[in-house]
Amino acid sequence: MVDRLLKLNTSNSLLVFGARGTGKSTILRKQFGSRANILWIDLLNDDDEDEYRRRPSRLSEKLASKKFQVVVIDEVQKNPKLLDIVQLEIEKDQGVQFVLSGSSARKLKRGGANLLAGRAFTFSLFPLTHIEIGHDFDLIRALEIGTLPKLLHYSDPLDATRFLKSYVKTYLKEEIVAEQLVRKIEPFQDFLEVAAQMNGKIINFSKIAGDVGVDEKTIKTYYDILTETLIGFYLPPFHRSIRKRQREAPKFYLFDSGVRRALSNTLSIKMEPQTFEFGNAFEHFVILEFIRLNIYSELDYKLSYLRTKDDAEIDLIVERPGRPDLLVEIKSYEDVEASDTRKLKAFLDTWDRPAEGVLLSRYSQEMLSNGVRCLQWQAALREIFSV
Domain map of the chain by residue range? Predict the structure, then answer.
């Protein structure tokens, strides 16, 4: 079993959010399954779902009749009313730890559900990082099929492809249609394909609206659905002024490289180094690793991208409280040369506060060029996030 980087609190109540298939149930069973006197409610189980849908108060009745140390409610978004019961039980302070998982914070918020603010810690779980996969990590495989945990069981590439295609259909059916997050599924399906094709690019809401055949407000809602179900992430534009950041358009990254390829119907394309597709996929994967490790490490680094008015761009800006900013360039080359660092050097020369430049590549040995550190990408991530 893979040892996950996410370490859940074992005393305070908590909420664990993550997209379908990221391993929420597995990590809950691993970290809490051996606890004595545990009540496990799985709302994907028809019997449990029916029992608590009919009478959410049944939870209070069970807690009154028997002493439990831990109450686990898996996929709690399927019954938001249970959160109100959980809040009441937490306020009784009877020493019960509530551990709740869900894949849709949007569903809970839209239903007016109490998200237990101040009463439960909130955690997020993602597909596997290269660190969690360990010695079995294969970059080409990660770029081609992603790192959802279930894929570790598929050695046949065709089976992995079948799984990803099924995952996308299941997500549409169960996460979007069944949870009624959108009114019409057809334009949302078209949007998903466009969002996958535009992955890693600055969002042009108006153009995408024209491509999908809906208004711009609907496209923004669709993107919000993806971020609130942890199917994707915004990467905001860098600016010292928060107000100016909010005016400019973000980039958007889907949460897994394999899911992106399934949505864009490109799973059959082999990842070949030195190609445009490979370069984009490598940058996507490394940025996902930054996002995942930043959240797991709880360092609160602020991530953004920078593009100037004359289209000079830095892939990633990492603002670190109390430390120099990191200006990060991601290259899919096997190695780098001094000329590759000139752009970062130019930005560093005009940066208005302490900053360091880092150029990441696939195999580069550590070196210093034009004041920019050149590092192999895995070594850089381990150093930046101390993992």
Answer: 14-125, 130-267, 283-385
